[in-house]
Amino acid sequence: MNAAQTTTATTSPTAGPAPESTALYDVPGPRARRRHRTYGLIATAVLLALLGWLLYLLFDTGQFTATKWAPFEYKGIQELLLRGLGNTLRAFALAAVLSLALGALLATGRLSDHAPVRWAATLVVEFFRAMPVLVMIFFIFVALKVQPFPALVAGLTLYNGSVLAEVFRSGINAVERGQGEAAFALGMRKTQVMSYVLVPQAARAMLPAIISQLVVALKDTSLGYLITYEEFLHAGKLIASNLDYDLPFIPVVMVISPIYIGMCMLLSWFAHWVARRQRRNPRTEAVDVAPAEPVTLLPGGGPPAAPRL
After folding, report:
1. Which tens digits make up the pLDDT trace of 221-263?
2. pLDDT tens-digit profile of 86-124?
3. Which among 120, 204, 200, 106 has a CA at the least distance from the CA of 160?
4. Backbone angles phi, psi at 26, to 5 degrees
C-alpha cells in the first residue's frame, strides 16, 4: 500500500469522525471525558464535606441559637441596617461618578500632545495608584480634618479615578492605529477623533475592567467604619459587639455578606445589560443590504457589443 492509499485509509469514513479542536485546547475524547467526570465527582464530594464540616462547627459553637439571631427581629436593628446600607450606596454612587470623571480627565491628560500636561497627569496617576486607599482616607480624615463622608468619598475617588485613568488610556491605545489615522486624514480634529472614533470603539473593550473597578469601590466603602462613617459594615459592627445578644458576630456576617455579594452581582448584571444594549445599537451592529436586482435597460439599450478586430 502506497502513501496515498495509507492516507485514504486513515481518513476514510469507516474510521469515524476525528474529534474537533479549538484554538485553546483539543476536545477531550471518551476516556478524557470519563476522567473529567471522575474529577468533578471527587471535587463535589470534597466541597460537600467541607460544607458539612463548616455547618457542624457553626452548630457546635452555638451560632444558630435564638439568642444570637434575636436582634434582627427588632425594628430598631432593622432600621440601623437599612440606614447603613443607604449610606453605603450613597458613598458608592458619589465615588463612582467622581471616579469616572476623574479617570476620564487624567486619561485625557496622559494622552495629551503637550508634554507638561502629560507629565503632570502621569505623576498624579502613579502617585495615587501606589498610595493605599486606607492611608488616603485616614490622611484626609485626620490631617485635613474632613468629615467622615467626604473623607471616604475623596479617598475612593482619588484611588479608583487613577486606576480608571489607566483603563481608559490603555483601552483607547488598544484601538487599531489606522482608525485614528483615517479620521485625521478626513480632516477631523483630535477632539472629534476621540469623541466619534476612538472612544466608542474602546468603550466596549473597557467595560469589563470599568465594572471590576467599580466593584472594588463598592467593597472599599466598608473602610468607612474605621473613620466612624455609619455605613453597612459599621452598623453590623454595632450589632455584633452587643453583649446582650451574646456577641452575634457570625450571624451578622451571614446577613451582611450575601447583601454585599448581591450588590456586586447586580452591578455585573448591569454591565452585561449595557453590553447587550451596545450590541443592538444601530450605530454598532451590521446593517442588512438588500440583494442586487436586475437593472432595467434604457430604451434601445442592450449589452455592449464585442469590439471588432
Report:
1. 989 988 989 889 888 888 888 777 777 888 888 889 899 889 8
2. 999 999 999 999 999 999 999 989 988 889 999 999 999
3. 106
4. -85, 140
